[in-house]
Amino acid sequence: MEKLNSAQIEERLKKLEGWEYNNDAIETSFEFKNFKEAFTVMTRIAFECEAQNHHPDWSNVYNSLQIRLNTHDAGGVTDKDFALAKSIENIIVSE
Ligand SMILES: C[C@H](O)[C@H](O)[C@H]1CNC2=NC(N)=NC(=O)C2=N1
């Protein structure tokens, strides 16, 4: 998978609300009502990651979730990251 340049990344980010490009990754964060809700969403995201064989760098503290996506193999952001970001958005809105 080919690494995208910053113009391509910014173009794709226009379709993703709340995500930004930082340090060779696309990033976002979410706040939930409590830990249980955060972890429920994380579990759903985890299954989607397995299906796509693409995995986030993420961290959770109580009700907050920070997600960072990049493609280690390509050393930057690729369309795999945007595919997973879109899936994450779909999971969030379906909650
Ligand atoms: C061997 C396996 O396909 C690779 O390690 C996959 C797994 N998940 C991955 N996830 C992410 N975010 N980047 C990768 O380059 C990547 N590579």
Explain this structure to me?
This protein is 44% helix and 22% strand. By secondary structure, it is of the alpha+beta class. It has one domain: Transcriptional coactivator/pterin dehydratase (Gyrase A, domain 2, 2-Layer Sandwich). The protein has a four-stranded antiparallel beta sheet with strand order 1-2-4-3. The longest helix has 18 residues, at 35-52. The radius of gyration is 13 Å and the shape is globular. Residues 53-55, 71-73 line the site of the ligand C[C@H](O)[C@H](O)[C@H]1CNC2=NC(N)=NC(=O)C2=N1. One of its GO terms (biological process) is tetrahydrobiopterin biosynthetic process. Belongs to the pterin-4-alpha-carbinolamine dehydratase family. It catalyses: (4aS,6R)-4a-hydroxy-L-erythro-5,6,7,8-tetrahydrobiopterin = (6R)-L-erythro-6,7-dihydrobiopterin + H2O.
Any ligands, ions or cofactors bound here, and which?
ligand H2B
- How many domains, in number, for the residues? 1
Q: Quick one: biggest sheet? A: 4 strands, antiparallel
Q: Which sequence of SSEs, written as H and E, runs from N to C?
A: HEEHEEH
What oligomeric state do the depicted chains represent?
single chain
The assigned structural class equals alpha+beta
Report the CATH topology name: Gyrase A, domain 2
Poorly predicted regions: none
CATH architecture: 2-Layer Sandwich
CATH class: Alpha Beta
How much helix, percentage-wise, in residues?
40-55%
Outline: globular
The count of β-strands is 4
Organism: Muriicola soli
GO molecular function: 4-alpha-hydroxytetrahydrobiopterin dehydratase activity
GO biological process, one term: tetrahydrobiopterin biosynthetic process
Protein name: Putative pterin-4-alpha-carbinolamine dehydratase
